[in-house]
Write a structure and sequence with these properties.
Rossmann fold, alpha/beta, 7 strands, 7-stranded mixed β-sheet, 36% helix
Length: 266
């Protein structure tokens, strides 16, 4: 399957730099990331007892440490493209090795891992076919790839509000769920679980949402984003447009989260 979507993804160096800058602030605003990663852990096969594992896109290492606790007898490895994140994660432990690397070109031998875990990282990968191919190569027969990602519809309220203001690209682009379904089907890995679940967070105002996205390193890093400063008039127009979505709990921000658990057949 050809991924025509790839040209709309941000440059990988921009992704690495953005998340490196966010290393110190990330954990303070990572409510969604915590919820998603814990749910992904719950989806792992109950009988899974890996001899070794890899956390792909480990970020600050929160789930590296969770994996280290769950599979205490198995040596683990943490990988991230953002060296600032690795520098933050490594002193906190959880894995035997912390390495800079790319999910599209894993620096590991063939058939060398029983579990590959990746929560909210692979949405930044331009060539998801390569991610799946690398996972299949690195997994041993019977090994598991568990990942979460974001799909089209994520931050739709913010996207629609900006569209009403100026029509420019202000929100990161994501793949369709149907694309993930097809790419996983084509990978040769057997799906144990593959579904989308919406997560809705609420904020008192637009500034709280945009501040959180910046603190996460997940603010707008798309090609084609508008350059220069955002004028006060446009910000006020954005606030006015977003107010249309207000609910009793606050301003909603919806994330369409993909959960996938795939197994390499023997």
């Amino acid at each position: 399957m050809t991924e025509s979507f790839d040209s709309g993804l941000p440059d990988k160096r921009q992704v690495a730099a953005s998340f490196s800058r966010a290393a110190a602030s990330y954990d303070s605003v990572a409510e969604l990331q915590r919820a998603v990663g814990h749910h992904l852990l719950e989806l792992l096969p109950a009988a899974l007892s890996p001899a070794d594992w890899l956390d792909i896109g480990c970020g600050t290492g929160y789930f590296t440490r969770a994996l280290g606790e769950r599979f205490a007898s198995a040596p683990g490895m943490a990988l991230d493209i953002a060296e600032g994140m690795l520098a933050h994660a490594q002193p906190l432990g959880g894995a035997t090795h912390f390495i800079a690397g790319d999910a599209e070109r894993l620096p590991l031998r063939d058939s060398s891992r029983d579990l590959l875990f990746s929560s909210l990282a692979v949405q930044w990968c331009g060539d998801f076919t390569a991610v799946l191919s690398e996972a299949k190569r690195v997994l041993r027969p019977g090994g598991v790839l568990a990942f979460s990602s974001l799909c089209v519809g994520t931050l739709q309220e913010l996207r629609d509000s900006w569209q009403a203001v100026d029509g420019h690209v202000h929100v990161n682009r994501f793949r369709q769920f149907s694309d993930y379904q097809q790419l996983c089907a084509d990978s040769g890995l057997h799906p144990l679980s593959l579904h989308v679940q919406p997560h809705v967070l609420h904020y008192p105002d637009v500034r709280s949402l945009t501040h959180e996205l910046k603190a996460l390193g997940a603010h707008n890093i798309n090609p084609g984003r508008p350059g220069g400063l955002t004028g006060r008039a446009r910000i006020l127009a954005l606030i006015d447009a977003y107010e249309r979505f207000r609910q009793p709990q606050g301003l909603p921000a919806t994330y369409q989260v993909l959960y996938a658990v795939l197994r390499k057949e023997g």
